[in-house]
Amino acid sequence: MNNIPVRGAFTVTAAYGETNPTLWGAKKHAGVDIAAGDRRIFSACTGRVRVVAFDANGWGQYVTVGDGEGRIHLYAHLVRGSVLVSPGEAVTPDVQLGTMGATGNVTGVHLHYQINDMSGTPQDPTPFLGIPNARGVYSPDEGGADESGGESGAGASGGTTAPQSHWAERHYDSLVARGVIDGGATSEVWRRFDASAAELTVGQLLALADKLK
Ligand SMILES: [Zn+2]
């Protein structure tokens, strides 16, 4: 099942639960940040649009969709005026919600995708997306899904293991390790990372990752 709100290859530029005082103060990152060459944003679920709004200092142009199963899906930082749906409208994963942009509190073009429960508490959205909660470049696996990930659950994160068989993953950590992206776990590095993700095409990112294999 494809619950990914973009089409084609994409980059997770910030995972759920990350900390970055520059961007989020004392809070943890409440969703995942996704950059992609194809900037169309689709609904990740079947459901109904709840809110279409603009928040200049936070989420920018954003849309929320309730899926009828206790989850509210939030799509933030869209291009202002790009939203193609209206509150109350029924949507499916084939419905385009709008266009990825850089409105609100951002450092570059990306989608902030977040799942809240009905009390408004953020949840890790990556099990729903079907990807690991990790930065990296992901692309639909055209060569036929092989086996599940070789190294079984590195990190012992507990909980359910996200299905990875449909995704080819290339870790950005290796780019950092090789100096392609400046090393060190500082907010400055993260800013450069985000800027690169916004400026490079996904194809260029994949090519970079390929070189390091
Ligand atoms: Zn975000």
Short account of what is shown:
The chain has about 210 residues and is an alpha+beta fold. The chain has 5 helices and 12 strands.
Structure characterization notes:
The protein is α+β, with helices and mostly antiparallel strands and 213 residues long. The protein has a single domain, classed as Distorted Sandwich (Glucose Permease (Domain IIA)), CATH 2.70.70.10. The chain has 5 helices and 12 strands. The chain has helices spanning 21-24, 126-129, 172-177, 187-199, 202-211; strands at 10-14, 32-36, 40-42, 47-55, 60-66, 71-78, 90-91, 96-99, 111-117, 122-123, 136-140, 167-170. The strands form 2 sheets. Strands 1, 2, 4, 5, 6, 7, 9, 10, 11 and 12 form a 10-stranded antiparallel β-sheet that branches. Bound molecules: zinc ion. The site of zinc ion has 5 residues, from loops.
Q: Give me the secondary-structure category.
A: alpha+beta
Mean pLDDT: 74
* SSE arrangement, N to C: EHEEEEEEEEEHEEHHH
The CATH homologous superfamily: Glucose Permease (Domain IIA)
- Quick one: biggest sheet? 10 strands, antiparallel
**What percent strand?**
25-35%
Low-confidence parts: 142-202
Write down the overall geometry: globular
The counted number of beta strands is 12
* Proportion of residues in helical segments: 10-25%
What is the CATH architecture term? Distorted Sandwich
C-alpha end-to-end distance: 28 Å
DSSP helix count? Answer: 5
CATH topology: Glucose Permease (Domain IIA)
- When the domains are counted, the total is 1
Q: Compute the gyration radius: what is it?
A: 17 Å
Ligand species: zinc ion
Name the CATH class. Answer: Mainly Beta
